[in-house]
Amino acid sequence: MEFFDNLPAMDLMRSEKMTFVQLIIPFESAHRAITYLGELGLLQFRDLNADRSPFQRTFVNQVKRCGEMSRKLRFFKDQISKAGLVSSLHSATQPDVELEELEIQLAEHEHELNEMNGNSEKLRQAYNELLEFKMVLQKAGGFLVSGKSPVVVEDRELDENIHSNGDYTDTASLLEKEMRPETMEQSRVRFISGIICKSKVQIFERMLFRATRGNMLFNQAPADEDIVDPVTSEMVEKIVFVVFFSGEQARMKILKICEAFGANCYPVPEDIAKQRQISQEVLSRLSEIETTLDAGYNHRNKALSSIQFHLNKWMSMVRREKAIYDTLNMLNFDVTKKCLVGEGWCPIFAKAKIQEALQRATYDSNSQVGIIFHEMDAPESPPTFFRTNRFTSAFQEIVDAYGVAGYQEANPAVYTVVTFPFLFAVMFGDWGHGICLLLGALVLIAQERKLTGQKLGSFMEMLFGGRYVLLLMSLFSIYCGLIYNEFFSVPFYIFGGSAYKCRDASCSDAHSVGLIKYQDPYPFGVDPRWRGSRSELPFLNSLKMKMSILLGVVQMNLGIILSYFNARFFKSSLDIRFQFVPQMIFLNSLFGYLSLLIVIKWCTGSQADLYHVMIYMFLSPTDDLGENQLFWGQKPLQIILLLLALIAVPWMLFPKPFILKKLHSENQILHGSIMRNLILVRSLCTK
Questions:
Q1: Can you count the helices (H) and strands (E) in the chain?
Q2: CB-based contact 257:206 (threshold 8 Å)
Q3: What is the pLDDT of residues 151-180, one digit of tens each?
Q4: Cα gap 371→32, rounded to integer Å
Q5: What's the CA gap between 29 and 27, in Å, rounded?
Q6: Quick one: pLDDT at residue 449?
Q7: Strand pairing partners for 500?
Q8: The pLDDT of residue 7
Q9: Is residue 515 within a helix (H) or strand (E), and if so which, with residue range?
């Protein structure tokens, strides 16, 4: 035991020793002090205002301002994304600006962008209306008649019947007669032209038919161009329509239906000359608005490019400021002394660095009063802090995902650096796949400086964070792949020839039948001749399963041994006697014994059935083992191990809870007696 006690302190093996400290910070130095402490990252503050809501804290207005600035920055980022601008890899190098100056800049940029977006939206709406008017003029002209020309109805067979059938006058409907040139003026047939979304055409036509009771003629044609929706910036397919009807009442119904369906109606004159004149005016105005829109887009893109150049720096600054004020809200504000009082935890080794940072904050803020930093008695158990670097941080995160070790407990991440990638390689063992994984890990490590600090996707960020995990996994995979003799599941004769050969010429194509062993075993790994043999699957499955049992038992023993060192460190003899000892006995009496049988069977080449041995060790421990006996004295040893395992279960489960309950009761009694004595002493002092 003295040997273990004299071992040097393990910096990486255990969490750092922590101390509870109090800081009294003058108000004028508070912001800079928290900034420097945040950059150091070695002090964890306690929330001294946990009983207050977020709106009752001292710096709530500053937090709101940071939240508003974050909203504006998200708006800028969304606008840059919609504009399709390529994000710049390099951020601005200008000096830091004050929070108030940044707030003014962001407000100006937001106002400018909103104004440009509003003007652009109005221009786009006017441009869309003119574009729709142009397409209505082009398409609706084919449905109308001017002067003495016959009625032209596109894509309809009705027009051909009107001019080809001499007896049409007797059989045509009233609406069709009104559409003839000679009756157009007499019956006062009117029309409404417009444009509507393609998805609404069928319902729109059906509604018009029902509203007019069939006394209308509906003509439609697809628009030549899609229209850009100014709100969603999506392309929308449109249909140009012309509705012929008779009567003022029908006109009012049609206009209301057009308004309900969002159809835009445009006046189209019947005179061809007027149509051409209006078309020219529309084209001229379209050209002017298009030029204005292009100029507006260019100006807007320049403004967004200027914002984009500083966006990452601004976002980082706002996040930092919000974190600073959130931390300041965890401190108590002493109104009388005009200072902030904070409490927190820090590693003992970091006290000098923290004091140096506080001195710099006092000097840089030109404060007349220094920051007081002193240790206090801990009111609660300290938090767990492990020092990590870029190599061990990923392994530490893997361990923390399952559970964080207690204060000053042994750190499992140190052993996970080896065990996690090795156990992966036991399952993944293929040196071809391992080489591919190694190349990927080396690429990520080579690009480490370039990729650090960049915003990667969720998948790439996970790969980059675990680049050293991938490196070790690939190296162990190559090693296990060589043992399994698998290169993309294909065996190779890397370390010489096989130990087996054919007995005669009749087995030239055989893999196992007729093979004899003629030389020493294959030097390293699995003999390639096993591949493709009839006994390949039983052999490899048996090998990997038994090897997994051995590795699993070693892993469990390692965990129990770590619990012993934790108990020794905390001087807890209760954990050693009623936790470590029975756990070791139970584990090794059963699974440790099984591991021993596996090793003996491998060394002796015995044909014993280990399943039979372990099953009948419980069912019939006194029966004769027969062919399954591997060594002398196996039967009494199994009986002893079985009895030890049965004793270890109640030994492990029952004594510790009762002893802890007894100790707790004694502490309660002792605490009560102390309190009574204190009350008695106080009453005597008052007399």
A1: 25, 13
A2: no
A3: 333 333 334 444 444 444 444 443 344 444
A4: 11
A5: 5
A6: 87
A7: 517
A8: 46
A9: strand 515-517
What pairing do the DSSP bridges indicate for beta strands 238-246 and 217-222?
antiparallel
Q: How far apart are CA 71 and CA 574, in angstroms?
A: 56
Strand ranges (DSSP E) for 353-403?
A: 372-376
For every residue of 609-671, which 3-state class applies, written as one string?
CHHHHHHHHHHCCCCCCHHHCCCCCHHHHHHHHHHHHHHHHHHHHCHHHHHHHHHHHHHHHHH
d(CA 359, CA 59): 24
SS3 label, residue 333:
strand
Cβ atoms within 10 Å, residue 242:
23
Element spanning 341, H or E: strand 339-347
What number of other Cβ atoms are within 10 A of residue 184's Cβ? 15
pTM of the model: 0.70
Cβ contacts of 104 within 8 Å, gap of 6 or more: none
Residue with tokens 């006996």: 629
The confidence score (pLDDT) of residue 606 equals 83
Q: What pLDDT, on a 0 to 100 scale, did the predictor assign at position 524?
A: 86
Give the pair of three-digit tokens for residue 490: 């294909």
DSSP state of 241: E
Per the listing, tokens 């050969």 go with 501
302 contacts: CB under 8 Å, gap ≥ 6 = none
Beta sheet of 238-246, edge-to-edge order = 217-222, 238-246, 189-197, 264-265
Give the span between the Cα atoms of 431 and 485, in whole angstroms.
8
Tokens of 323: 């974190």
What is the Cα Rg of the chain in Å? 43
Residue 78 to residue 74: CA distance in whole angstroms: 6
- Using alpha carbons, select from 284, 292, 252, 254 the residue that is nearest to residue 133: 284
Q: How far does Cα 437 stand from its chain's mean position?
A: 23
The torsion angles phi and psi of 446, rounded to 5 degrees, stand at: -65, -35
Closest CA to 76 of 319, 318, 316, 303: 303
Is residue 600 within 8 Å of 630, Cβ to Cβ?
A: yes
Question: CA distances (Å), 436 to each of 448, 470, 487, in order?
Answer: 19, 11, 11
Inter-axis angle of helices 431-446 and 467-484, nearest 10 = 160
Report d(CA 209, CA 215) in Å as an integer: 7
